[in-house]
Write a structure and sequence with these properties.
Layout: H1 2-58, E1 62-74, H2 81-87, E2 95-108, E3 114-117, H3 119-122, E4 127-131, E5 137-146, E6 151-156, E7 177-182, E8 190-205, E9 210-218, E10 230-232, E11 238-245, E12 253-257, H4 258-271, E13 277-278, E14 281-285, H5 288-293, E15 302-307, H6 312-316, E16 323-327, E17 330-331, H7 335-343, E18 350-357, E19 360-367, E20 369-370, E21 393-397, H8 400-406, E22 414-419, H9 424-428, E23 435-439, E24 442-443, H10 447-454, E25 462-469, E26 472-479
Antiparallel strand pairs: 1-2, 1-4, 2-3, 3-6, 4-5, 5-6, 7-8, 7-10, 8-9, 9-12, 10-11, 11-12, 13-20, 14-15, 15-16, 16-17, 16-18, 18-19, 21-22, 22-23, 23-24, 23-25, 25-26
Length: about 475
Amino acid sequence: MLKIKLIKINRNMILATALVFLLSLNWIGSVSAETEQTDSYLALEAFSNSIADIAERVGPAVVNIDTVRMMTTQLPSFQDPIFERFFGRDFEEFRRAIPQKGTGSGFIINQEGYVLTNEHVVRKADNIKVTLSDGREFAGEVIGSDVTSDIAIVKIQADHLPSVTLGNSDELRVGEIVIAIGNPYGLQQTVTMGVVSAKGRSIPAGTERQVYRNFIQTDTAINPGNSGGPLLNIKGEVVGINTAIIPYAQGIGFAIPINIAKKNIDDLINLGKVRRSWLGVYIQDVTPEIAKQFNLTEAKGVLVGDVIKNSPAEEVGIKTGDIIMKVNDEEVNSPEELQDKIRDVEIGKNADIEVMRDGKAINFMVKIVEMPTVEVEGSESLKEKVFSVQTGIQVEPVTSEIAKEMGLSWVKGLVITEVVPGSSADDMGLQQGDIVLEASRTEVSSIGEWEKVINKLEPGDTLLLLVFRNQHTYYVPIKVEKID
């Protein structure tokens, strides 16, 4: 009997122990969940505080920029003979200046009052007012600007000012958190946050169809008035200059990498402009179709579409149709890569340029000079044009009358008289008035020469045209389609 009783007691003890163990596990689980929630809260609080700390620390160095540009307008003519009798015909030419206002942002880069902003924010401004976060207002003066990179330096007469720390935009990673501070729609000291959506973006901007390259794309809210303000990393360092939005998109903004600005700040302050190394060629991508026309086994290098007169490239003998393969023994496979390599060459120094010409590699030692500052408004930069392929044009010989009408100094080539809508040529951007100088690497100045080239092609073949437009030449590959 005693033995049986002991067994019962042991069984009860086991059950009790198991119950206590289960209860303790439940308690431990509850404590663990509460700990995780607490840790998450503390982590979020720390992150939130870090963003607020950045806004407090950097905000005082972010400024609002208001501009006034005087636009001259002409009043409509008065046809009443009484007005003409009293005021004469001169009254019709009465003009008055109307102020056009603009707003943007900027940030102080040193204590001496130098403000970095976008060039388009202060372009052609007659009056500039810079307002600090503490409400102080100063007259601003543009001491340096650069249209190509869209950056400018504005000087205000003040010292001991709060300033930003410039970071390294090359270290940015896609997905990294970034913060924007600016004055969208005139709402000063607005802070927004997002991530780096992409790097190396190219976007067209302005009426001149200029293409800005290597932009940082972000979903951080950037609105009109943000332009010129800083894009910050989580250390509070400036990694970009907020500069553009796509108006029809949601949550897409762009910023100039700060490393581009850092290279140019000294030139802007000391010279008022950016000095750039210059080779003097108009360049294009080598597409598979172009590679085939040049008997290349693969699409590599950068095609020279035109060589600028009296440029370093012309002086050493680089020609239209050359394919640049290397700069100082480093391969280049896009216009951007070539531009970057040339930009890295110090002005006045030599660059070893390797080109492929008629299947042979040729090296040129080119002395790189400063890029001329003459800019033609409204002209399209062919070096930044990326071409696709297709067909559909009619041509006729360039006569002396056509040459005179078009302001040509020579009589050669074929003028495009019609471009079929929706055709490959149309997609390529060919236009009436373009001059075709070569077809499939052969000069053409008559319909007979043109047809001789065309008759050798089969449907689906690529026809490579050398086209003259706006005082420059460039190559356009188009597909030959079957005639229905």
